[in-house]
Amino acid sequence: MQRISVTARLNRSTLQFEEAAYARLESYFAEAARTLAGNPDQAEILADLEQAVADQCTKRMQTEQGTVTLAELQPALEEIGSVQVPGAAGAADHPARDAMRPLQQVSEGAMISGVCQGLARYFGLDVTLLRVIAVLLLFVTGGGMILVYLILMLLLPYAPAEPGGKPIRKIPARSRAFVGFVRSKLSTVTN
Amino acid sequence: MSTESKLAPIRKGLLEFLVLKIVGGQSVYVPDILRRLAGTEFATQEGTLYPLLSKLRREDLVQYEWQESDAGPPRKYYRLTDTGKAQLAALDEYWNRINRTISDIGH
């Protein structure tokens, strides 16, 4: 059994999203909410952006009553761009901030969930090298590596999407939806 | 430091001024503003514009009203408040002054 699509209410519009597209949408708005944390107009700006996303998706959708795919959502989000707070300097203006980069997983361009990309970014190593090491460890540990990967995947926060970054492939989008599901289950259990 | 990295903050600072100018012309909604800026050095995106407009509204420089549209949901049309008009005039004046200074100096 598999969920095919999710119906989402975006401000004044209601649209159907493919599972992977919905996961991407969730991460876009989670990041936007983080960027706007503490902003007195956070709710209003998010509502404006929801409407912008809905309008963009409607414009791009192939069929009238169809489902928004990840391939349709991605260019829509790129046109809208990530949320920039006026007056605050962007990350690109402060190369020094890279020195304090947190350990995160990077969904954009990931193979599975982005753990290797995150580790590569954290340690300043080539991601291919990290992936080769991960595969070697998989054999050396007789599969124990899978457990380590799963734990990191569930624990590491997601790096915010970068403007003009690579798209999220299907598997990382699914894994992200899965992690979101597990985290929400865990939080209901602990509450 | 590259030239671009010095120019980017200038553009960023001037975007607010340009948005005030566009909103000052006539009442506009966000796609109008994006279109006016597209193709210029100040081309921007909704992700930047909505937070900026919210800030301007909080500073009582712009206000918006809902207007029905032929297609889709009602739209927010922005226009300048009296404070906004005064600030735009002051910014315009200041901009002309520094422009003159920049072209006069060094000659």
Describe the fold and architecture.
Chain A is mostly helical and 191 residues long. Chain A folds into two domains: 1-85, no CATH class; 96-191, no CATH class. Chain A is built from seven helices and three strands. In chain A, strands 1-2-3 form a three-stranded mixed beta sheet. Chain A is globular. In chain A, 29% of the residues are buried. Chain B is mainly alpha-helical and 107 residues long. Chain B has a single domain, classed as Winged helix-like DNA-binding domain superfamily/Winged helix DNA-binding domain (Arc Repressor Mutant, subunit A). Chain B contains four helices and two strands, in the order H-H-H-E-E-H. In chain B, strands 1-2 form a two-stranded antiparallel ribbon. In chain B, helix 1 crosses helix 4 (82-104). The longest helix of chain B has 23 residues, at 3-25. Chain B is globular. The model of chain B has no long low-confidence stretch (mean pLDDT 91). Chains A and B meet through helix 2 of A and helix 1 and helix 3 of B.
